[in-house]
Design a protein that fits this description.
With 185 residues, the protein is α+β, with helices and mostly antiparallel strands. Helices cover 64% and strands 17% of the residues. The chain is built from three helices and six strands; from the N terminus they run H-H-H-E-E-E-E-E-E. A three-stranded antiparallel sheet has the order 1-4-5.
């Protein structure tokens, strides 16, 4: 009987020991799983942080480009805002020059008055960045000049401007009106 009791006790101890070992193993496995999950979460967090950092840097770059682009547009709009009115004033300048050419007496008060207005208009053009395109004696440039006539001229190389028929103007780099010219052939 004692043997049986001892065996029962030993079996009970084995069962208890097994349960304790199983419980310990389960606890260890749970701890390892938690650590693994934390490690996985950390890797996921790191990759998420990298992804968000990349997105943030891209957004910052896009915003910087947007600000630069809008600043350039504002500057361009400021420069070209007066384009329409300057286009309207160019024929006025032409008429002032024609009036000055028509006056025979350079000492006449009419001539002096027209000359003063023409100089004031020219100063206003310069103030807003409108400049005359220099063409006389220059090589023909289709971006700046409008050839309406050709003529063979002795002593002048082909493709040279020999006469300006109407002055041209440009606003900074934009040609508002090309210079109308006669070109040698």
């Amino acid at each position: 009987m004692e043997n049986n009791k001892q065996e029962e006790i030993q079996e009970e101890l084995k069962d208890n020991a097994s349960e304790e070992v199983v419980e310990e193993t389960i606890e260890e496995a749970q701890e390892e799983a938690t650590e693994a999950k934390e490690a996985t979460d950390a890797d996921e967090k790191d990759s998420k942080i990298e992804e968000l950092t990349d997105t943030l840097q891209r957004l910052q770059a896009e915003y910087a480009n947007y600000r630069r682009r809008t600043q350039q547009e504002k500057e361009t709009m400021g420069i070209y805002a007066n384009e329409k009115i300057l286009n309207e004033l160019i024929p006025v300048m032409d008429n002032m020059e024609r009036a000055l050419d028509a006056c025979t007496d350079k000492e006449d008060n009419m001539y002096k008055g027209i000359d003063m207005v023409q100089k004031q208009l020219k100063a206003t053009f310069e103030k807003f960045g409108l400049e005359e395109i220099n063409a006389d004696g220059q090589e023909f440039d289709p971006n700046l000049h409008l050839a309406v006539m050709q003529e063979a001229v002795d002593g002048v190389e082909p493709n040279q401007v020999v006469m300006v028929l109407q002055k041209g103007y440009k606003l900074n780099t934009k040609v508002l009106r090309p210079t109308m010219v006669k070109v040698s052939c």
